[in-house]
């Protein structure tokens, strides 16, 4: 399968975005459309009144359609020790979705959402609005449950590689 050739501005955009460090997250869902998840850095805080976040998911991703049908989502914010988990859910290890969930320590949150047990934080919510933008769907999620872990360094993505950020004393 040949990838389409990028225009110069598209390549410049991708190169510039590789200079933007971002937290690494695993987005999960479960419901009538099934259970799935993916690794994402396109997660953004919107407001705390009510607590709302936005995620961007490629429209070609199977998870995109599943999120839309299920209507609920969990955002698992990864710690530095979750690099292999991030690679699994990014599809870099060629594991199928069942193997990805079996390989790591997951529990069930509200609405049977898959929650990574030792993530730095996990945000569970309902999709309240979507918007199509280019190749991606923007999902606006109103949170109904938040779990925070104390301590640990974060997993970030910068310059096309994973990095630990912060220290164990936070």
From TrEMBL:
Keywords: Aromatic hydrocarbons catabolism, Flavoprotein, Monooxygenase, NAD, Oxidoreductase. Pathway: Aromatic compound metabolism; 4-hydroxyphenylacetate degradation; pyruvate and succinate semialdehyde from 4-hydroxyphenylacetate: step 1/7. This is 4-hydroxyphenylacetate 3-monooxygenase reductase component. GO terms for biological process: benzene-containing compound metabolic process; pyrimidine nucleobase catabolic process. The keyword Metal-binding does not apply. It comes from Ignatzschineria indica. SMART domains: Flavin_Reduct. One of its GO terms (molecular function) is oxidoreductase activity, acting on NAD(P)H. Belongs to the non-flavoprotein flavin reductase family. HpaC subfamily. PANTHER family: FLAVIN REDUCTASE (PTHR30466), FMN REDUCTASE (NADH) RUTF (PTHR30466:SF1). InterPro entries: Flavin_Rdtase-like_dom (IPR002563), HPA_mOase_red (IPR011982), NADH-dep_flavin_reductase (IPR050268), Split_barrel_FMN-bd (IPR012349). Residues 17-164 form the Flavin reductase like domain.
